[in-house]
Amino acid sequence: MLQAIRYNQGHLEILDQLQLPFVEKYIPIQNSEDGWEAIKSMKVRGAPAIAIVAMLALCSELFALDAAGKIPTAPADAQDYINKKLAYLLTSRPTAVNLSDAARKLEVITAESAARPGSTGQDVTKAFIGAAEEMLGKDLQDNQQIGHNGSEWIMKHAAKPNTPNVAVLTHCNTGSLATSGYGTALGVIRSLSSQNVLRHAYCTETRPYNQGSRLTAFELVHDKIPATLITDSMAAALLADSSVGVNAIVVGADRVAANGDTANKIGTYGLAVLAKHHGVKFLVAAPLTTIDLATKSGEDIVIEQRPSNEVTSIKGPRQQDVASGSAALDLETVCTAAPGINVWNPAFDITPANLIDGIITEKGVVEKGSDGQFHMDVLFN
Ligand code: MRU
């Protein structure tokens, strides 16, 4: 399986996603500054992967500090050091809640350790490191369960009678590269495929940053899952095509509010509107770490604005170098828009809960109650 994050006892490496799918290169992340930069510049993306890389980047820094004999002796000083670094890491990207969720949980764990009688600065950093390392394995397990729950739901509620398999459309990247492994929405597709009930997967290109054509397509080809790439503007025609017969659209999430409103990659909302029009099931797949009960509705979610050059240019190798199988691929940036044009580049949009049929989590698939509303708090009771 593809691995976006490699970690072993303070040694953290990430697959540089800016160079995928053309160049597979791991880069070291040695401290929180490296982690912040990798997240901000999109070398790592996807809500769970961002959170895990941020926490493990701080682990690497703490390991190095320990090796240099520089861990603060007083527990309160070690706690303060960690909290300042967490606050800094939180400034990297605002929309995905997994990052702040992870930071809050680890703040509590370090505070508990610091408050224990006889505790030392070493104990506090060890408590932080242990809990951060656990997040990596937990995310993988959760994703496998999400895949299982989602595939079961789809076969029960979205498959056509007398048809043993389903076609699924997905958006952005939600696979191994966006998580610690397996993926959320792409994990559901993986699960369907492994049970031989996936007729076909469709992935959108996901403009402007092409997470679909660069990352999801890469994962689908890598795992030999039957799949086809479409541009975002082809989704309506695909859903209208009865010979294709898309059964469900499954997407990931960066933040699910308490009422089920969901922030995800720009273009998700449009797909949900199309799904409603065509009577196709629309599902969000996300771990509990993406569900934010403190945010009442989508109106309260901050949407990150990205630089205009992500819309006006594109980065890749020369087509003839790819076709000739050249080993050394130089990536070039080419302009695709009229110089001087204004650009609007929100990285995410909000899909209103009323357009969503189910929210697939590791604890099960949440559907609307008899009042027609999602009650996401049931997951935490
Ligand atoms: O801007 P990105 O690439 O970080 O956006 C990623 C997405 O929107 C994903 O769909 C989301 O984070 C879920 S990843 C399991």
Task: Provide tags for this entry.
18% strand; alpha/beta; 381 residues; binds 5-S-methyl-1-O-phosphono-5-thio-D-ribulose; 4-stranded mixed beta sheet; 39% helix
Helix-strand blueprint:
Blueprint lengths: L4 E4 L2 E5 L10 E4 L2 H9 L6 H21 L7 H16 L6 H19 L5 H37 L8 E5 L14 H10 L3 E7 L6 H12 L4 E4 L4 H6 L5 E6 L3 E3 L4 E4 L2 H11 L2 E5 L5 E2 L16 H4 E4 L2 H5 L8 E4 L12 E4 L6 E4 L2 E3 L15
Parallel strand pairs: 4-5, 4-7, 5-6, 7-10, 8-11, 10-15
Antiparallel strand pairs: 1-2, 2-3, 8-9, 9-14, 12-13, 15-16
Helix pairs in contact: 1-2, 1-3, 2-4, 2-5, 3-4, 3-5, 4-5, 5-6
The protein binds 5-S-methyl-1-O-phosphono-5-thio-D-ribulose (MRU).
Determine the strand fraction and express it as a percent band: 15-25%
Counting H and I runs of at least 4 residues, what is the number of helices? 11
SS-based class? alpha/beta
**Mind summarizing the main beta sheet?**
7 strands, mixed
Mean pLDDT: 96
Intertermini distance: 34 Å
Order of helices and strands: EEEHHHHHEHEHEHEEEHEEHEHEEEE
- Helix proportion: 25-40%
How are strands sequenced across the largest beta sheet? 6-5-4-7-10-15-16
Ligands and ions found: 5-S-methyl-1-O-phosphono-5-thio-D-ribulose
General shape: globular
Number of strands: 16
- Unreliable stretches covering 5 or more consecutive residues: none
- How large is the radius of gyration? 21 Å
